[in-house]
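Researcher: Here's my situation. A collaborator sent me these components and asked whether they could plausibly form a single complex. I don't have experimental data yet, so a predicted model of the whole assembly would be a useful starting point for our discussion.
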Amino acid sequence: MTKEFNYDVVIVGLGPAGASLAYFLRKSGLKVAGVEMNGTEGVWGKPCGDAIGKHHFDETGLPYPSSDALKQKIEGIDIISPYGGVKLRVNGEGFMIDRNKYGLFLINESAKAGIDVYLKTRVLSPKLESGKLVGVRAKNEAGDDLLFRGKIIVDATGNSGLLRRQLPQSWPANEPLDPKDSNIAYREIRELNYDIDEPTYLRIYVNQEVSPGGYWWYFPEGRSSANIGLGVQGGMGYPAPNVIFKQRLETFDEVRNYTKVINAAGSKVPTRRQANTLVWDNFIGIGDNGYNVNPVHGGGMGYAFVAAFHAYRTIINAFSANDFSAKALWDLNINYIKSIGKRQASLDIFRIFLQRLSNDDIEYGLKHGIMNADQVYETSVSGELKANLGLLDKVSVVLRMLGRPSLLPKLATVATYMKRVQQLYDAYPTSPEGLDVWVSSVKALYSEYKAKIGAD
Ligand SMILES: Cc1cc2nc3c(=O)[nH]c(=O)nc-3n(C[C@H](O)[C@H](O)[C@H](O)COP(=O)(O)OP(=O)(O)OC[C@H]3O[C@@H](n4cnc5c(N)ncnc54)[C@H](O)[C@@H]3O)c2cc1C
């Protein structure tokens, strides 16, 4: 017999998106269930680079990781060019976190404040009655059939998109991920047999031959261990990242000089603009599920926090109005776009360009100062391409570009489309009725852009 539970809000998945939402809602007075298939030891168990910018905590009010959940304080990132000729140092504070400990902290605080947490409970499918989403079916460890009913159902199951992809095809929230808009990533946490120089700086190695359409990273966790991994663009037929790790990364001294592998695993990460809509009637999808990720570097924890923060406000408003329709939940789209989504879309345009560059182009561009460290930082913050484009007519830049004549005009095209996509996001529809027309404009812009830069 199926056991039934009634809630205001049912959050499925307690990873960074779901657990932070539960935490934000903990004092709301709403009846909230958080349903997670893993037990305590597997909380936030998805393999990750574990790095996150401090500003995401400041933006959302989430507490910084306490000492036991903090593996390393970060002062910045070194971006290293393909042939090692250039190292750009981008300063910015951040943390290497212990995901399990930080995740458990958020979940425990939520449970203490009255959120009902169901661990080791796997959600199987959405429950629809007369075409309306009313809950989710689940199974617990004992094999009991469960039905969690809720006025709002939140899919925070990560890139599995468990509920979203089982919604009716006609619902715009059911928007599949093109594999080319993802990175397949793999990482190992290794104990090293040497002392790391400058453990407060993350290292990102851009090298299209080692990690095509992605990058490989070396993120210190203290003086003698590091999270080392790589991502490759999905859907392109590239070798699996764990195979590349063994064949290519092991050739680098800082990787192969180790004593122990503490953990090794891989997964997928979406690297695109956010889903066309994060909501539909009685439904919210956030985190990897709503493609809330930085498309250029694939960092998704901070974006999940921001999406959860706006989802929390939307949920509070929806309960005040006692309306859970797509229209009532729509302000989640608007607020996410205003805070981070517009920039995310613009960075998606940039990402598609970056994935087409050769090692020679990247080395040349970095070496000749087309973009410096400040510009890399500003581009990632503003979503507007900050490069020395305005100098096109200056003799010195033209001379510098003689070795790569096609690169600067291409960058100018990218900058134009980054602006144009931002304008489209400024014109995001104010209610669900306008979504179809808007999505057609986005698709048209992307097709035009891809044709111009020769991407498919
Ligand atoms: C190798 C790699 C390295 C990365 N490095 C970084 C990095 O350094 N920094 C960064 O910010 N991001 C990084 N990312 C991305 C980041 O890991 C994700 O964006 C982030 O974890 C997304 O959080 P989420 O809550 O949306 O999804 P998830 O972390 O995937 O959490 C989803 C939760 O839902 C649960 N769940 C799934 N299905 C069910 C079900 N049927 N029933 C119940 N529960 C379910 C899962 O158990 C899980 O707890 C990396 C990703 C990869 C793959």
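Model: Some features of this prediction you could bring to your collaborator: The two ends are 51 Å apart (CA to CA). Residues 331-354 form the longest helix (24 residues).
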